[in-house]
């Protein structure tokens, strides 16, 4: 049932992103309710699959692909929520296929045995806040890419296919910084809790994750200060958002991939 749910989630995700992509690139009408409804079914099916994939009687399995699938699920939820209230349904063409592929990866790609974790309540809160902040930063990175495309179109007076569903630059930029602010708050709390939840950064192989997470936090802190004190915007905001997001990817998923796939350290 877990595999069937994962495959079904993948089909609904791709259906939703295909409908959104067709409306973006052609004159076909935007069927927003159908797009969001299909994506919502995919989210529920993925949640069912993840619950049985990650939770077992002996603990919680947060190996690389399971963690990636959990982040992508939260990312899909946030994208769906944003698209319900803001004209950013374009993001579904990026978020939903990634959620689909990560789900299949978690179910089909074998990894070395990863012993289930037994976490304290504080550690569980730290992990969930981290996943939530990473997912929000993914949405922010997607918004930054769309903002870059819009700025490029305005600068060169070009007509870029696929951007007709996007809001004006100013609205998109405002949404980007709102997302960055919430993400920064979540990441700040997660980092603080992490120092109390972790007994030894070295023994638990978390030095690289902590280093890159703090480095990313500094980048985003500088960006937010620059925005509200000096009015930073446009290309600078896009670059700093993508740099900070890349540091988070390297620190969390990158280090986890090296430990599990190369060094075989759990």
Structure in words:
The protein is 77% helix and 2% strand. The chain is mainly alpha-helical and 266 residues long. It has one domain (2-262). Strands 1-2 form a two-stranded antiparallel ribbon.
Q: Helix and strand layout, with pairings?
A:
Layout: H1 2-25, H2 32-54, E1 55-56, E2 59-60, H3 64-85, H4 92-108, H5 121-156, H6 169-197, H7 207-230, H8 234-262
Number of domains: 1
Order of helices and strands: HHEEHHHHHH
What's the overall average pLDDT, rounded? 83
Shape: flat
Which percent band covers the strand fraction? under 5%
Question: Structural class, from secondary structure content?
Answer: mainly alpha
Main beta sheet strand tally, sense and closure: 2 strands, antiparallel
Level of helix content?
Answer: over 70%
The total of helices stands at 8
Strand segment count: 2
> Measured on Cα atoms, how large is the radius of gyration?
19 Å
Order of neighbouring strands in the sheet with most strands: 1-2
Runs in which pLDDT lies below 50 for 5 or more consecutive residues are none
The end-to-end span amounts to 28 Å
């Amino acid at each position: 049932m877990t595999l069937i749910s994962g495959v079904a989630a993948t089909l609904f995700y791709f259906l939703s992103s295909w409908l959104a992509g067709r409306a973006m690139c052609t004159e076909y009408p935007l069927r927003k309710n159908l797009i969001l409804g299909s994506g919502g079914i995919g989210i529920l099916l993925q949640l069912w699959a993840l619950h049985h994939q990650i939770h077992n009687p002996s603990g919680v399995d947060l190996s690389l692909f399971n963690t990636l699938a959990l982040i992508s699920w939260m990312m899909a939820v946030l994208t769906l929520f944003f698209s319900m209230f803001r004209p950013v349904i374009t993001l579904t063409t990026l978020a939903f296929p990634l959620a689909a592929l990560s789900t299949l990866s978690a179910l089909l790609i074998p990894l070395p045995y990863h012993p289930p974790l037994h976490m304290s309540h504080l550690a569980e809160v730290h992990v969930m806040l981290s996943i939530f902040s990473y997912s929000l930063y993914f949405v922010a990175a997607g918004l930054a890419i769309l903002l870059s495309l819009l700025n490029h179109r305005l600068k060169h007076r070009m007509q870029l296919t696929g951007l007709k569903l996007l809001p004006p630059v100013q609205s998109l930029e405002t949404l980007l910084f709102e997302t960055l602010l919430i993400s920064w708050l979540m990441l700040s709390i997660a980092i603080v809790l992490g120092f109390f939840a972790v007994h030894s950064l070295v023994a638990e192989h978390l030095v690289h994750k902590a280093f890159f997470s703090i480095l990313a936090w500094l980048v985003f802190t500088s960006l937010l200060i620059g925005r509200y004190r000096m009015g930073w915007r446009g290309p600078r905001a896009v670059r700093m958002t993508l740099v900070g997001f890349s540091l988070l990817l390297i620190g969390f998923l990158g280090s986890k991939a090296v430990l599990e796939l190369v060094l075989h350290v759990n």
